[in-house]
Design goal:
binds copper (II) ion; Immunoglobulin-like; six-stranded mixed sheet; mainly beta; 6 helices; 479 residues
Length: 479
């Protein structure tokens, strides 16, 4: 353990929230006195910024504790199916990579040592990190070449369920197994008897267990990416959560798939979502039917009932009915721990954002590169072409995204959380933040956010085959 290095720009990045508070006080003080002839206050954006105050912090002080992690990329073999071993690319010889667990305020110092035959980088999905720690080649850092090392150091700003994965040629590197979870625990535990992570992934395997090694097939690129023929939790087909009747459990589900979307079905179990994409929700809601797009997470709160049969958690997104994992109730019943479901009451309402003008807009479309290869584009440009979108730091921004295609696109913003405010022009009242949102074919959505974290960040489709075919752009926050 050692001294933590303060993250760059911390003091600068705390300013916008202070300004927002001041602006909020002024708006409140003059409410009613500044109405325009049309009845509006003329300060809709300021009101929306004001609603955000207190939703999550601009910064979190470091405790000084440093958690050192070595992440060595290497080729290994694991047993996914019984018919034969699967050669995979791993962090430290395992899939998922080691679960990194820290307490809020702890500093993560992760040393990537690249033992692969090609370059790689690590992205800390959903974690608000200093910009140069975000892991995107050509945006945040140089690629880490074979035999080289890179030290990632950051103090997570938020508690919650996050994950790390390769952000280099993800259509192959993620698919081969380069992912793991990063759990940031709250300063005081809530009182769950078990806290369990299931990283959900699908694999496209030959009958003998070998990975199908044709990546970026044109059909996958132009459709919904590469979907596998088996579904695993923590790279196993037989993942089981064993608990006594009455146990109250926090189960964290991470969609680590390249492309497949899930809708976890808990059957007869009574399951509440308490967090989405790492962040606590404003109020818990029934988990059934929640759509878990690639990159996304949900944390659920469940009480294990007395039961003779395992409760199987199925994927119910497209009717294939893959089992994800199961929960086995065994042993003597215990008294269920009683505590209020954790929430974040400060999630902004932002239903008024339906009337705000979009500050920026994107159209997503499929085209062809000069060599005929399929190419995904934001506003006609495939990465690295295109100008960065400039967001106003510390103020409400509304972004419209139109999916002008017939396939799914889970859109992920780096370094920020946002709320979905409209779908196809209709106001949406989701009582939680996201870092990834699924666009259905032909759909137009609008998201709102107050950008607190300065720098140039990636915005891309989390279907890896789409991202690697150009479906990425950048945006800037602050100077
Ligand atoms: Cu996409």
């Amino acid at each position: 353990m050692g001294e933590s290095k303060p993250a760059q720009g911390r003091s600068i990045r705390s300013l916008p929230l202070v300004l927002a508070v001041v602006a909020g006080v002024m708006v409140t003080a003059f409410a009613g006195a500044a109405l325009l002839p049309d009845g509006s206050s003329g300060s809709a954006a300021a009101d929306l910024t004001d609603e955000f105050v207190g939703a999550y912090p601009a910064t979190t002080p470091a405790t000084g504790e440093v958690v050192e992690v070595l992440l060595q990329t290497q080729i290994a073999a694991i047993d996914v199916v019984e018919t034969g071993a699967t050669a995979v690319w791993t962090y430290n010889g395992q899939v998922p990579g080691p679960e990194i667990r820290v307490r809020l305020g702890d500093t993560v110092r992760a040393t990537l040592v690249n033992g692969l035959p090609e370059s790689t980088t690590i992205h800390w999905h959903g974690v608000r990190v200093p910009n140069d720690m975000d892991g995107v080649p050509a945006v945040n850092q140089e690629p880490v070449e074979p035999g080289e090392a890179f030290v990632y150091e950051f103090t997570p700003t938020d508690a919650g369920t996050f994950w790390y994965h390769s952000h280099t040629r993800g259509s192959e590197q993620l698919e081969r197994g380069l992912y793991g979870s990063l759990i940031v625990e709250e300063p005081e535990p809530f009182g769950y008897s078990q806290d369990v992570t299931w990283m959900i992934d699908d694999w496209l395997l030959e009958a003998d267990g070998r990975l199908v090694e044709q990546f970026r097939q044109p059909h996958d690129v132009t459709h919904n990416g590469r979907w596998g023929n088996i579904v695993t939790a923590n790279a196993r087909l037989d993942t089981v959560l064993r608990a006594a009747p009455g146990e109250r459990i926090r189960l964290r589900l991470v969609n680590a798939s390249n492309a497949r979307t899930y809708a976890p079905d808990f059957g007869a179990l009574d399951v509440d979502v308490i967090a989405v994409d790492g962040m606590l929700v404003g109020a818990p809601f029934d988990a059934s039917g929640f759509v878990l797009a690639p990159g996304s997470r949900i944390d659920v709160d469940l009480v294990v009932p007395a039961a003779d049969e395992p409760a199987v958690v199925f994927d119910n997104f497209n009717g294939e009915g893959f089992a994800i994992g199961s929960i086995i109730s065994e042993g003597d019943p215990i008294a269920t721990s009683q505590f209020p479901v954790p929430t974040n009451p400060a999630v902004p309402d932002w239903t008024g954002a339906v009337d705000a003008d979009a500050d920026h807009s994107y159209v997503v479309s499929l085209g062809r590169a000069g060599d005929g290869w399929p190419q995904w584009r934001f506003n006609g440009d495939a990465f690295p072409d295109g100008e960065p979108m400039a967001l106003t730091e510390g103020e409400f921004n509304k972004i419209q995204i139109l999916n002008d295609s017939q396939v799914l696109h889970p859109i992920h913003l780096h370094g920020q959380f946002f709320k979905v405010v409209t779908r196809n022009g209709v106001s949406v009242d989701e009582d939680f933040f996201r870092d990834t949102v699924l666009l259905m074919p032909g759909e137009t959505i609008e998201i709102g956010l107050v950008a607190l974290d300065a720098g140039t960040w990636a915005l891309h489709c989390h279907i890896q085959e789409h991202a690697d075919a150009g479906m990425m752009t950048t945006f800037t926050v602050g100077a």
